[in-house]
Amino acid sequence: MNKYFHSVELNADLCCGCTNCLKRCPTEAIRIRGGKAHILSERCIDCGECIRICPHHAKHARSNQLEEINNYKIKIAIPAPALFGQFNNLNDIDIVLTGLRALGFDVVYEVSRGAELVSEATRRMIAEGKLNKPIISSACPAVVRLIKIRFPELCGNVMPLLAPMEVAARMARREVIDMTGVDDSEIGVFFITPCPAKVTEINAPNSTEKSAVSGAIAISQIYPALTSKMDKLKVIEPIAKSGLLGVGWATSGGESAAMLGEKYLAADGIENVIRVLEELEDDHIRDVDFIELNACSGGCVGGVLAIENPYVAQARIQNLRKYMPVSLNHLKDGDVERMMWENELEFNAESFRLSEDIIEAMDMMEKMEEICKTLPGLDCGSCGAPTCRALAEDIVKGNAKETDCIHKLKAKIQSVYDQLGTL
Fold first, then answer.
1. Domain boundaries, the chain
2. Helix, strand or coil for residue 267?
3. Rounded mean pLDDT of the chain?
4. Are strands 59-61 and 8-10 parallel, antiparallel or unpaired?
5. The CATH number of the domain covering residues in 1-62
6. Fold exhibited by the domain 353-423
7. CA angle, 103 as apex, 97 and 105 as ends, to 5°?
């Protein structure tokens, strides 16, 4: 497993070093050096904000190609419920699911089925009272990574359940193996994803040693071919096996609504998520059992790999849910135990480690504080770092110099000019 796999990549040829991404990155994972953006792997959470904000389209997210499904004997598609919000006038998700079958997938298994099971497991665990409240949803991998990097004190509040994508993949594999007897290595499970964070979660999971998902295909990539197949369908197969609770996970507040309770909070958009986490860390949020956080505005429908405007997609999902049963998936004996995390969530200390040597790290921290006092504190980003403190960190690491600060450079030039004037 690649410890620092990232789905977000930079095309240096298109980058103009404009600092837009620098200012919007929630974990200070971007620097501008030599007129180009650079991504710090140990801090990137693959939220996709840099892709969303870049006016030059210099950032992109890598994902699998549709042709890669042919590397497997049995091909399984597990579409995110956000996919259903991409199509106008859709009143039956079986049209989308049959379209995926027409694209070459042998089996189509909705992630919304896994979502319904996760919701039921969450309700059961809350009722048992064994979790730290308020409980933070673990469904958004970008939020989970954000907590690991910026809010380590909240790691114990994150729900220790696998995300619906992983639950659906494991169930789909088990069903296919039971039906066909084919070896697990011959089964390819492909998530139809609205966001880059899910691609990263597949390749470098937070909660398990190895994901049951073989790869991820972006909604934006599969959309044209899928739309074409859907338009030509003659028979609609009865594939759907999920209800409104599972499909509702596509939008902000959908997971919380599936808790069937009143004491919950839902926030979407990375800036709003950070604000909630800060208040939660300061113990300003109380009398709440469950907190749903989505890095993308509008929820998963707002992912940068989706096609439709997130608010249009959100309205379509709400309309689609009117024709659905409440829930079609329920827990069986042992399901909750199989859905629990294999790894404990811990602070990613390497993200901010100055040195492997503790004594050296303490010396570097002292120098950082001294440098910070000499900087203007404007956090303008002109130096190529998002804040003055980040610049001080880069300086002690040897990745920048004090004159990268244009205000200090200006003062130095003025000093030289004044000295020359006295000659």
1. 1-62, 66-339, 353-423
2. strand
3. 94
4. antiparallel
5. 3.30.70.20
6. 3-methyladenine DNA Glycosylase II; Chain A, domain 3 (1.10.15)
7. 70
Q: Using an 8 Å Cβ cutoff, are 346 and 338 in contact?
A: no
| DSSP bridge pairs for 340 | 161
Q: Is the peptide bond between 194 and the residue preceding it cis, with omega within 30 degrees of 0?
A: no
Read off φ and ψ for residue 159, nearest 5 degrees.
-60, 120
**Which tens digits make up the pLDDT trace of 333-366?**
999 999 999 988 988 877 888 898 999 999 999 9
Query: Which secondary-structure segment (H or E) carries 277?
Result: helix 270-281
- Helices 164-180 and 111-128 cross at an angle (nearest 10°) of 120
CA 325 distance to own-chain centroid: 29
CB atoms within 10 A of CB 128: 9
d(CA 385, CA 400): 9
Other beta carbons less than 10 A from residue 68's beta carbon: 15
Which CATH class for the 66-339 domain? Answer: alpha beta
Q: pLDDT tens for residues 395-409?
A: 999 999 999 999 888
Query: What's the distance, CA 271 to chain centroid?
Result: 14
Token pair listed for 2:
């690649």
- Asked if residue 296 lies in contact with residue 304, where contact means CB atoms within 8 angstroms, the answer is yes
Helix (H) / strand (E) containing 335 = helix 335-339
* SS3 state of residue 219: helix
Report the predicted TM-score, pTM, of the whole model to 2 decimal places: 0.93
Residue 414 · residue 407 · CB < 8 Å: no
Instruction: Pinpoint the alpha helices (H) of 45-191.
Output: 49-53, 93-102, 111-128, 141-150, 164-180
